[in-house]
Design a protein that fits this description.
The model has no long low-confidence stretch (mean pLDDT about 95). It contains two helices and four strands, in the order E-H-E-E-H-E.
Length: about 90
């Protein structure tokens, strides 16, 4: 598993979320996508991927097209690497 976090302005996140469709049409390899209100007009985001290669595939398939349209985002992902431990309670 590969983990990344993003801190961004809420308005910027909204534009990117709409175009990347992480919640509505999750890309192959995305295990977990969580976004929260961080206060002061900012949001935090946690993405967990199967492996780093899946992030690269997603960038080629969707990300680079959105960057061409919107320009580079201010809130860029912080890549944390491979998870050492992971637990997620199954849905009931």
């Amino acid at each position: 598993m590969f983990v990344e976090t993003i801190d961004s302005e809420r308005a910027e996140w909204g534009k990117w979320e709409e175009r990347l469709r992480l919640s509505e049409d999750p890309p192959d390899g995305l295990v977990l996508h969580v976004v929260w209100d961080a206060g002061n007009g900012r949001v935090g985001q946690l993405n967990v991927w199967d492996e780093p290669g899946k992030v690269s595939d997603f960038y080629v398939e969707r990300g680079q097209h959105v960057i061409a349209e919107l320009g580079e985002p201010k809130g860029k992902p912080d890549r944390h690497g491979t998870a050492l431990a992971f637990f997620m309670r199954p849905a009931e």
